Amino acid sequence: MIRVEGLTRHFDVSGSWLSRTLDRRPRQVVRAVDGVDFTIERGETLSLVGESGSGKSTIGRMIVGLERPDAGRILFDGRDLTSIAPAEARRQRRRMQMIFQDPFASLNPRWRVRSLVAEALGPAEPSAGPAGGRSRRAQRRAEVGRLLREVGLQESDGDKYPHEFSGGQRQRICIARALAGRPEFLVCDEPTSALDVSVQAQILNLMRDLQSALTLTYLFISHNLAVVYHVSTRVGVLYLGRLCEIGTRDQVFGRPRHPYTRMLLDSIPDVTLSGRPRTPVQGEVPSPIHPPPGCAFHPRCPLANDRCRRERPEMRTLPDGVAVACHAVEEGRAG
Amino acid sequence: MSSPIIATAAAGAASHGAAAATGAAAPLLSVRNLSVEIPHRRGAVTALHDISFDVAKGEILGVVGESGAGKSLTGQSIIGLLEPPLRISGGSILFEGQDLCALSPAQMRRIRGKEITAIFQDPLTSLNPLYTIGEMLMETVLTHLPVTPDEARQRSLAMLGEVGIPAPEERFNHYPHQFSGGMRQRVVIALALCANPRLVIADEPTTALDVSVQAQIIALLKRLSREHGTTVVLITHDMGVIAETAQRVCVMYAGRVVEIGPVRDLVSAPRHPYSQGLLQSIPRAGQPVERLAQIEGSMPRPGSIPEGCAFHPRCPRRFEPCDRTVPPSYAIAPGHAVACHLFAEGAATGEPG
Q1: How many domains does chain A have?
Q2: Average pLDDT over residues B127-133
Q3: Which residues 169-228 in chain B show a CB within 8 A of chain A?
């Protein structure tokens, strides 16, 4: 359904021309997303995981059109959204929606919930006469009620303002808004990170129910590996703007190949107290302004050698379908 | 296990049940029937209701709960940093036998920073951006310990090395913005520990950090607590962090302690319906489930806390007394207490599934 090829986004974070000239500093560029490829099949959930600065949110924003890619293609049902006419791209993008992390920031506090959801239904069409207008208004009202019920709220909640709701209920309102345009594809950017665990469970269950009821396709962006395991069909692991491993959930979690994936999985706090041995984790994510040469992960990698420090690894698909960008895996050093 | 249900007769004594079973040694910190309220034009809103727990010397006690459960307020009460108009309306906080609630602000200042210190969630706001980390460490050491500036410097450098900051000599003169998030939190930990405190209140110390850094900070806290014998009250919403770090857990809900017990027992067999729901709603990597268990509804806000047990409107196992009387704390095993009517003597339903 979605194919992303060589997606790249750089941000210029240098100071003004004057301060650059005075301090004799060069331009500074953050490579937020640097040549990412993946596909999402209809009806599945692809999750992107990574630590802060890995570029996961930027990818989601580029797909829905909130951010313009510097290079690469976004194919939606075979049509390249980056090269078709803007009007046509907008028409295609109506089939996608996005759910954001913070349900407190994404709802206008001065609007009633009914208006917030009705806004997402699109402009009211001009009516033929007073009678037609009334029936359209009734139709819109009924549609808002249906959406609110669909996400587990009551129709009467439409008369309230966002501050009357808890965080979880606000996220339900955001989901109702996203569903208003009857989208086929949803980008969910950390939808439960601001919520408590018991509420997170409610929202994750709701998202799963909606996916099967409405055959939705999700791109799920999160840093929480346990949540990712729960929701995903396939998982892609990002590090400093590049994909380092992508495969089905059970492949990535069951037999992680890339040293970074292994380290990330090892760092999940263990609720079960299984006494599972954990490899001590080293170092932190380096600055994306000056990413290390070669493989970006080499300063933290226990398997790094000279080639890793020099040459950037390419994505290679292994016989079982997992794609990994790692010299050590390719050379069989990863064990 | 834990079938003996000991209902302590007197309601007042009941909440001490957890404390009595903790151990023979006198606890370092003993919170007794602590209540905190927000004064209001008409009456007051109760934010913390009758909280009691003990922390033994050298122990790490985890305090877990969702937002609004009152876990941070508990920490702020202990260190004497409650934001007015919040005020302690009852109970006591005994630190080595001394009631912190009865101290004057000046007396409390001498204890805070020396005997009791805190680590907060966001390392950037806990550090002054205008001072180098060396200056901040030196100031802390010189304020609280009888040492010369030279000794203070040595001590600060040793502390930086101990929390895992590479090249401490060089980093000593750096400002907070020159550190990454994980390194900043290490500096905050160094600051909290440099005067050799007896008790550290760690309020969500890893929440703002990435998972790989979080694992490093947890390991560091555990090691320092073990090596220095420092007692830690670890406040977090993340059950995983608690399970990895603490020896005992205290589960809070709507300003009350609902269950307190050893980590192993509480994580493998939680007894309070809320603790059970909380643990079941956590997704776990490697354990596929179709649907997560969910607790319907959400935590009540202070001011609209229901009568009786605060959890009863959401509780799948509620019965007659739940909406009328606040359940006292029942000791169900040594060091394990549950505030739930299911565990009252004679309650037929005393064995949750």
Answers
A1: 2
A2: 93
A3: 180-183, 210-216, 218-219
The tokens describing A210, both together, are 């909606």
Are A83 and A211 within one domain?
Answer: yes
Q: For the CA atoms of chain B, what is the radius of gyration?
A: 21
Q: Residue A270: what pLDDT? A: 73
Q: Tell me, what's the pLDDT at A279?
A: 65
Pick from A198, A225, A230 the residue to mutate for testing the B interface (most B CBs within 10 Å). Answer: A198
Do A252 and A281 reside in the same domain of the chain? yes
d(CA A130, CA B91): 67
**What's the pTM?**
0.84
Q: Which of A248, A121, A92 lies closest to A184, judged by CA?
A: A92
Last residue of a domain, one of A157, A182, A207: A182
Same domain, A215 and A309: yes
Residues A155 and A273 in one domain: no
**Pairing relation of β-strands A45-49 and A234-239?**
parallel
Which of the four pLDDT bands, split at 50, 70 and 90, describes residue B346? low
pLDDT level of residue A168 (50, 70, 90 thresholds) = confident
Q: A151, A182, A213 — which closes off a domain? A: A182
A102 touches chain B (CB under 8 A): no
Rounded distance between C-alpha atoms, residue B306 and residue B326, angstroms: 10
Q: What is the ipTM of this complex?
A: 0.81
Q: Is B261 on the interface with A (CB under 8 A)?
A: no
Q: Do the bridges between strand A217-222 and strand A234-239 make them parallel or antiparallel, or are there none, so unpaired?
A: unpaired
pLDDT of B179 above 50:
yes
Per-residue pLDDT, B4: 40
pLDDT for residue B6: 38
Left (φ > 0), alpha (ψ -120 to 50) or beta: where does A53 sit? left
Domain coordinates in residue numbering, chain B: 123-196
Range of the domain at A325: 2-95+183-331
Name the amino acid, one letter, at A74: I
- Work out the pLDDT band at B3, boundaries 50, 70, 90: very low
* B18 CA: distance to closest CA in chain A (Å): 23
Give the Å distances, CA to CA, from B31 to B13, B46, B233.
Answer: 14, 17, 12
State the CATH number of the domain containing residue A254: 3.40.50.300
A254 with A306, same domain?
yes
Average pLDDT, chain A: 88
- Is the pLDDT at A44 greater than 80? The verdict is yes
* 8 Å CB contact between A93 and A280: no
Report which residue type is found at A156.
S
Q: A228 with A199, same domain?
A: yes
pLDDT in the model for residue B132? 95
Rounded to an integer, the average pLDDT of A81-88 is 89
Residue A131 predicted with pLDDT over 80 = no
Cis peptide before B85 (omega within 30 of 0): yes
A280: chain B residues, CB-CB within 8 Å: 216, 219
Chain A residue nearest residue B212, CA to CA: A267
Q: Are A273 and B277 within 8 A, CB to CB? A: no
Q: Which residues of A touch B288 (CB under 8 A)?
A: 229-230
